[in-house]
Write a structure and sequence with these properties.
The chain is an alpha+beta fold. The chain is built from 3 helices and 5 strands. It is globular, with a radius of gyration of 17 Å. The protein binds adenosine monophosphate and zinc ion.
Length: 135
């Protein structure tokens, strides 16, 4: 499966140059062109899936294992202090490239990477509604 209009399909296939850190039969891992911090990288499957909602289960599992391996290796190379794994699904959640990918964002003490949210309060009615609807 591939989408001829998709830039990540082309990058994953090696048809558009990228700074590739790793490649196997399922994935290419590249440096992000607009990094949030030094070493910000993307795990990109070679097959086209819009996002997590339609990603094949086997690839979903492999992607997380690959993120684990890559971050363990990269944290020594980059000498960073932590890592965020970020994965955006749909425009409302900040997805801009509609080919599944996982961000691996190295964190350095005192860096200015703007990830985070205002912490709210779990409302009783929200909790009841969600738990009931999931039954
Ligand atoms: P998202 O907002 O989760 O869809 O993330 C898309 C990411 O892809 C952004 O961090 C972009 O900087 C990055 N990006 C877009 N085009 C390229 C490219 N040609 N090479 C490397 N990274 C890219
Ligand atoms: Zn694609």
């Amino acid at each position: 499966m591939r989408d001829d209009n998709c830039i990540f399909c082309k990058i994953a296939a090696g048809e558009i140059p990228s700074a590739a850190l790793y490649e196997d039969e399922d994935f290419r891992v590249i440096l992000d062109l607009s990094p949030a911090s030094k070493g910000h990288a993307l795990i990109i499957p070679k097959e086209h899936y819009r996002n997590l909602f339609d990603l094949e289960d086997g690839l979903a599992a492999k992607a997380l294992v690959l993120a684990k391996k890559m971050t363990i290796k990269l944290k020594d190379v980059l000498e960073c202090d932590g890592y965020n794994i970020v994965q955006n699904n749909e425009e409302a959640a900040g997805q801009t490239v509609f080919h599944f990918h996982m961000h691996m964002i190295p964190r350095y003490k005192g860096d200015k990477v703007g990830l985070g949210w205002h912490m709210g309060k779990l409302e009783e009615k929200d909790k009841e509604e969600i738990l009931n609807k999931l039954k």
